[in-house]
């Protein structure tokens, strides 16, 4: 099973009627944020960190996250250039689900991650799963 399949399994277990976010963002905002991260990997991130950052700090951060199986980042920080929107939890989760389905079937050229730089599809799948799991730490 690949990381995107794991992400789907994780999201399938969420019962939106009995969970809430303990963080600054509501569930809908969080899911929308996660969906945009997936969409940006296919369509391009609006704002990129400098190439030097991507080749050093960004690459190292991704390697550490991938090796440990855990990501840690500011959970109330939007992706640079992200469209911030408050949506219902159902709508946000639907957006995330759709973006993951599109990513799973995507055969085009992936765009560089704004911080990690160039990632292949397997690496992006890992990054998306770890991003989802990191945000779900604030869901109870």
Task: Summarize the helices and strands and which ones pair or pack.
Elements: H1 3-12, H2 27-43, H3 51-68, H4 89-105, H5 121-136
Helix pairs in contact: 1-4, 1-5, 2-4, 2-5
Features of this protein?
single chain, mainly alpha, 5 helices, 56% helix, 140 residues
Number of strands: 0
Instruction: Work out the helix count.
Output: 5
Mean pLDDT: 97
- Element order, helices and strands? HHHHH
Residues in helices, as a percent range: 55-70%
Summing up helix and strand content along with how strands pair, one would put the structural category as mainly alpha
Most strands sheet: none
Characterize the overall form: globular
Strand content: under 5%
Model description:
This protein has 140 residues and is mainly α. It is 56% helix and 0% strand. It contains five helices and no strands. The chain has helices at residues 3-12, 27-43, 51-68, 89-105, 121-136. Helix 1 (3-12) runs antiparallel to helix 4, helix 1 runs parallel beside helix 5 and helix 2 (27-43) runs parallel beside helix 4 (89-105). The longest helix is centred in the middle third of the chain and has 18 residues, at 51-68. It is globular. 29% of the residues are buried.
What is the compact description of this entry?
With 140 residues, this protein is mostly helical. 56% of the residues lie in helices and 0% in strands. The chain contains 5 helices and no strands.
């Amino acid at each position: 099973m690949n990381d995107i399949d794991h992400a789907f399994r994780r999201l399938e277990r969420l019962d939106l009627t009995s969970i809430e976010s303990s963080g600054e963002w509501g569930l809908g905002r969080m899911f929308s944020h996660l969906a945009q991260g997936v969409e940006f990997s296919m369509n391009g991130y609006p704002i990129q960190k400098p190439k030097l950052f991507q080749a050093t700090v960004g690459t190292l951060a991704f390697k550490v996250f991938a090796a440990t199986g855990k990501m840690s980042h500011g959970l109330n920080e939007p992706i640079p250039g992200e469209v911030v929107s408050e949506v219902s939890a159902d709508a946000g989760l639907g957006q995330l689900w759709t973006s993951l389905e599109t990513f799973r079937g995507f055969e085009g050229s992936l765009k560089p991650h704004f911080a990690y730089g160039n990632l292949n599809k397997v690496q992006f799948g890992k990054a998306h799963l770890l991003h989802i799991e990191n945000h779900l730490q604030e869901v109870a």
